[in-house]
Design brief:
The chain is α/β, with parallel strands linked by helices. The protein has 7 helices and 5 strands; from the N terminus they run βααβαβααβαβα. It has a 5-stranded parallel beta sheet with strand order 1-2-3-4-5. GO terms for molecular function: cyclic-guanylate-specific phosphodiesterase activity.
Length: 138
């Protein structure tokens, strides 16, 4: 991942490094998309594979017209450029339904699971499989 705020001032420096990394078959995400001041130029200039929409846009995306429009158009723009889209920080079913209906590729957040240390992940998966199936069907 490359964060948008870090990349804004370092596009020329990052570009060849990202190309080298991608040459190894590694995918690159532009994290915290929408929090910086030059998002569109970053989409044009950085050879990323995926953008991650910052959770600050998702808290009100299903409720506020302006934010909803930003998220909808960000997903459409990213897909038009060939990028996949990750929504970060999803906490409720309304936002999940909104993002699914707009074609968001990957949805992350506390709705599914809090951040866990590695040693707790397998235990969590085993105890929450049924709950996750319910959310996937919703």
């Amino acid at each position: 991942e490359v964060t948008e705020t870090m990349a804004i001032d370092r596009v020329r420096e990052l570009n060849p490094l990202i190309h080298q990394i991608k040459g190894l078959g590694i995918k690159i995400s532009l994290d915290d998309f929408g929090t910086g001041y030059s998002s569109l130029s970053l989409l044009r200039d950085l050879p990323v594979d995926q953008i991650k929409i910052d959770r600050s846009f998702l808290c009100t995306a299903s409720k506020t017209e302006g934010t909803r429009s930003i998220v909808e158009n960000t997903i459409a723009l990213a897909h038009g450029l060939g990028y996949s889209v990750v929504a970060e920080g999803v906490q409720d079913m309304d936002t999940l339904h909104f993002l699914r209906s707009r074609g968001c590729d990957i949805i992350q957040g506390y709705l599914f699971c809090p951040a866990l240390p590695l040693n707790e992940v397998i235990s969590w998966v085993n105890t929450h499989d049924e709950e996750q199936s319910r959310i996937r069907r919703a």
